[in-house]
Amino acid sequence: MNEFLRKKWEMAGLADDYIFNKVMLDYDICLEVLRRILPDLHIKKIKLPNNQQEFAIAPDAKSVRFDIYTTDEQGNHYDIEMQVADHHNIAKRIRYYQTASSMEAYDKGQPYEQADDSYVIFFCNFDPFQLGQQRYVLHKHIDEIPEQIIEDGQTDILFNVPSLRHDVDPKMQAFLDMIAQREVEATDPLVVKLKERIAVVKRNRKWRSEYMRRSVYEMDQEMREKKIREGERRIRDGKREILEGKRELQKGKRELLEGKREIQKSKREIKEGQDRLKEKEQLIQEREQKLHENQQTIIKISIEAMRALNIDKTTIKKEIKEKFDLSDKEIKDYFAE
Predict the structure, then answer these.
(1) pTM for the whole thing?
(2) Which of 178, 191, 187, 218 is nearest to 85 (CA)?
(3) How far is 31 from 37, CA to CA, in rounded Å?
(4) Could you read off the pLDDT of 218-262 as tens digits, one per residue?
(5) Short-list 64, 57, 84, CA closest to 214
(6) Cα separation, 312 vs 66, whole angstroms
(7) Which of 103, 264, 303, 307 is 20 to 30 A from 123 via CA?
(8) Buried-state track 58-80, b at ≥16 Cβ within 10 A, e below 16
(9) Are strands 135-138 and 141-142 parallel, antiparallel or unpaired?
């Protein structure tokens, strides 16, 4: 026998769903637990508890397997579940269990008002709604009038087993303490029966073997699910990386396109600048040509004026050269005409 599984079996208590199921199969224990959960119903007797009863709402619908299922003398239906781990789906899970249980409450041809009441009871090894309550009782109500409960015959009850609030009555608290393996009053008849029943379960070799096989299967299943989750995580990461890569590629394409546009814009601006520069150069040349022509005209007029005054040629050349800052060649050209 695997040492780990052997120790697990020896340490397992009511918080283990397998042990819980086998213990709750005891008629007296199941009846007393229901009486403590629902004292106002005054339950006198129940049908022999059924372990792992399976229901399917429709041929193609998801089936549900109840941990403990029974009915009382008034026809009320009870589904009792032990929830070991928090899979963060408790509300939807309760809804489906209640639906399956409620289907059993409607006989064919029976009027709706004669349908039996249905109770789904969850013992959770965690706070199912993270609101700090020790017990949660769920009914439908009208949103606009929250205090108005809809009496549809469905009741969901959830216990936060680790809670230390002690908001339930002492008898119910004793049962919760037994599940949580806390210290309990040994004189409580239910506590005595529970301890005796747990000892009987632990001595049952068939159940021990079944527990081992189930534990191995669950560990294998957990490992497979872990690998599947890891694979799914890697796929998600890969998809994110691909998507991020596509985004980066699109961003790069946009930046490249923007760069090309900037280059084209720069080319246009350079060409426009060159065109403007050419226009300015041409304008300067035209202005210089005009100034040159104007200067030539002025020089010629000045020479003619000084000649008219009978000023000698040498003096005229000297005067024109100094006044207009001309070279000897330019002076020579004017007087060669």
Answers:
(1) 0.65
(2) 218
(3) 10
(4) 777 778 878 888 888 888 888 888 888 888 888 989 988 888 998
(5) 84
(6) 138
(7) 103
(8) eeeeeebebbbbbbbeeebbbbb
(9) unpaired
